[in-house]
Each structure stands twice: as structure tokens, then as C-alpha cells.
Design brief:
7-stranded antiparallel β-sheet, GMC_OxRdtase, FAD/NAD(P)-binding domain, 478 residues, flavoprotein, 22% strand, binds flavin-adenine dinucleotide, globular, 2 domains
Amino acid sequence: MRTVIVGAGSAGLMCAWKLSEDPGHEVVLVDAGTDPGPEVPGELRTEILLPPHYYWPYADEATGAFLPRGKVFGGSSAVNAAAAVRGHPWCYDAWGSDLWSYEACLPAFRAIEADRQFGHDDHHGADGPIAITRYEQSAFDLAFQDTYRRHGHDPVPDHNAPGALGFGPFPTNHVDGVRMSTLVAVLPRIRARAHVRLLPDSEVLRVLVSGGAACGVVLRDARGEHLVEADQVILSAGTFGTPEILFQSGIGPADALRAAWIPVVTDAPQLGTNLSDHVLFQMNVEVTDASELPMPGGRGTLLTYELPGENHPQAQMFAYHAPFFDPTAAPDTAAVAAALVTPESRGRLTLGRGRAKVRLGHLSDPLDRVRAADIVTRAADLVDDLAAQGRVKLPDSPWWRGEDLSEACRAQALTYHHPVGTCRMSRDGDGVVDEYLRVRGVEGLSVADASVMPTVPRAHTNLAAMMIGYRAATFAAR
Ligand SMILES: Cc1cc2nc3c(=O)[nH]c(=O)nc-3n(C[C@H](O)[C@H](O)[C@H](O)COP(=O)(O)OP(=O)(O)OC[C@H]3O[C@@H](n4cnc5c(N)ncnc54)[C@H](O)[C@@H]3O)c2cc1C
């Protein structure tokens, strides 16, 4: 049995690791990005701002904003901020399939992690490849914690405990000075397996379908275009990459395919719709005492709380040292971030001439605009409190205190880098993939990455993507 996995990112590498536990199962792992080899360079172990060749060139068609996605073995897990938050049970229970309830996903969440503080709890793992820890907090973050407490929030020691809400240290997979990406933590576990073949620097152009079944992929590498044959193909090229490959393979909305002269293999009108992303707002303030700066992104204190409304609408808040993400920020700047992590708005990915066209659609739903103004106001009150304590200085005209906050939020909306949902999974017939992640209408073709999530979890998406990759391997091994 030979499986070709396209994309060696969070989900793809996890899938390859689990699937190749069986020495009789040949796995070919293809990625357009490079494999830096066993000695992972320092920048990929620690840095968040990396040279351009480590990213795909996606931008939001509506705003022009750069939408970074990792193009390297490890995928986006190798370029991310390493916050390791799972989300609540109800995030997964809402996916509409018993196969994906939180209870059903929990064994995979446990298998992929080695949690340094809570590894032996029932809902954690201690032996998986991805180390997770929580840091002692800086004086600035502790002051923020006091402020959260005064505003009615409770402390939570473990944000990954089921249903945890409140403030506490970020769980992070940045451990002992290294980002525990799948590149660093998973790839070394499969390099020595003789039945695993790694094909770096190889961009997959399309899946070859014959007689209604996938029989391989066409890729382009330094030598030109080739066919790699397969008994089954798993696409793990990410929320933007996977639908692009499906489009080029003749799977997508039939009208759009015909208009682009792509022969239709199967009509999948849902492909590219349902794009969902957390929206983030950032308030930059000056820290008064430069010896007490906030911690880098994903390592300080995280606050999670619910908003009024049905179905647990939720927000996050945290502060980090602004130069972490923005080299032009002054060294004494704190970025205070507020994020809406239960967006109603949906964007779209459509067939383009070169790369697919992406519109995140942030705040396109009126309810999100109301909630955005609400969370920014709450965050602004907390920042005012810190200013009253003399810990921070506000800018002269803070954008978050203008007259039309709703309009200001539209102008200030940023991606939290958590797009999902373009190949939505559903138990019934209306998703791109079924609950076993098989592409509807084509035998031997599955999707395993963040694109299958029907809704975005109320959390960072890396652990969820890895969980999906791990579980996809158990389905594919059958
Ligand atoms: C800047 C940034 C910060 C983030 N911070 C966090 C964080 O702190 N915590 C968190 O949980 N999440 C974070 N995320 C999100 C998280 O990293 C992603 O949700 C997750 O990595 C997605 O996994 P994936 O497997 O779906 O895709 P990816 O990990 O992106 O993997 C896709 C892989 O497919 C390859 N590929 C794509 N197209 C092709 C093709 N045609 N041929 C061959 N290969 C192809 C890519 O090169 C890539 O290696 C962040 C993301 C970014 C970009």
C-alpha cells in the first residue's frame, strides 16, 4: 500500500508519523518547501519573522494584507508563535459528528503532546512528540493578571482543561528556547524509516484521477513535471493550498472549473466557501518602566471569556512585547490584543489565474461588528486601568477611543493567522469531505488539515490541525 501525503506541515507530518508506524505501509511525503535536514537552522527553531522564501505569497484580495503560510517542512507550525491551546469541548462537539466530538478527539490530543505541567492528568498526554509548557510570568504580565482579577475574571492554571475560562499562562510549544514544530519534533521520528520517502522542493500541481479514483499526483520539482503514483492520496496542503490543488484537479464548483477550462471531475460547489478566521485587534501602548516588559507572543498571560449570546461566543485578550511581531515597533511598546474567536463571518477562496484568490471576510456579519466593538471596549477599559496605575502610557489619539468604534474596528481588523474551513467536513452530503475526511465523489482521496474544520475552534489552530492529521492516519490505515 502506498500513500502520498501532500504537505508536510502540522497535519501532514503528524499523519505521516502515525501512518508509517506500520512498516508495510509506504508513505511518500511531498512538500513544495525545503527540508532543512537533521540540523534545523536556528531561525526555524526560534524566530517568528523569517525570510520570504519560507512563506507562500498569499494576500487578502480585499485588503491587500499579507496572509503568511509556512512553505517549509513543518509548514505553518515552523513559522508560528507556538501558542498551544486546544479549545473547549463544545468547539468539537459543534462539528456535527460523533466521530469528531471532543471525547472522540481527546485520545489524539493526548497522543501528540508531552505536557510538562499536566501531562499525567486524564485530559493530557506525557509521551507525545510535541512538548508543551507554561512560563513563569513577567512583572508586566502579573500586573495585567491583577487587572483581569479586578475586572471580575478568575485565574485558570491550565487553559487546556476542558471548559477553562479566565486568565493564566499561555500553554506553549516553545520549550527550552525552541519552537516544537512538526519539523523539529516529528520529522526526526520518521527520517530513519526506510518505507518513508521525503520529497522536498516539489510543488504538487494536481491529483490524477482515473476511473473515479485518485491514482497519483503530478508534481513539479527542479527536474520538471512528474507523476508519483499512489494507492491513495491525502491532501494536507493547508486551508489555502488544499483547495487550490483540488481546483486544479477538476474538483470544485463546476461552472468555475469550466470557465477556467479545467475538465470537471466532480462538482463540489462548497469548495472554498466557509473560510473562517479569528479576527484580532491590536492596541499599542508605551510601557512606562522598560525593565518590566511583557513577554513575547504566546508566552505571557492569556485571558479567555464569554460574551453575552447563544452558543458560547468567546473572546481572548493578551499582551506581548510588540517588536516580537513588528520589528519597526519601539522597544518599550506593548501590544495589547483582543480577538473574537467565534466569528460568524465567512470569507471565500476562489479559483485564480495563478494562486487562488482569498477574501477572509472579517466582520462581514453584522453580529461580529457588534461583538468586535464590545471586546475592544472591554480591552480599552483594562488598558485605561493599567494607565491609571502608571504602568503604560496611551498614545495621543488612541484608535479605540474614536467616535465611530464600529468603523474603526473595520479599519483595524487583523488576521489572527487561524484560517480554516475551505474543505468543510460534514456527516451529511453537503461538505467537501465526509466525516472520515474522504473527498466526496473521488475514491482514494482524502483531506487532512485545517481546511476540513467546519468551524474554527475557540483557540489557536495548530494543535487542532495536528490532531486532525493524527486521526486521518488512523482512518487511512484501514
Ligand atoms: C504567523 C503565524 C502565526 C501563528 N501562530 C499560531 C500559534 O501561536 N498557535 C497556533 O496554534 N497556531 C498558530 N498559527 C496557525 C497554525 O500554525 C496553523 O493553523 C497550522 O499550522 C495549520 O496546519 P495545516 O497542516 O493545516 O497547514 P500547514 O502547516 O500550513 O501545512 C501545509 C503544508 O503544505 C505545503 N503545501 C501547500 N501547497 C502545496 C503544494 N501545492 N504542493 C506541495 N506542498 C504544498 C506547505 O508548504 C506546507 O508545508 C499561526 C500561523 C501563522 C502563519
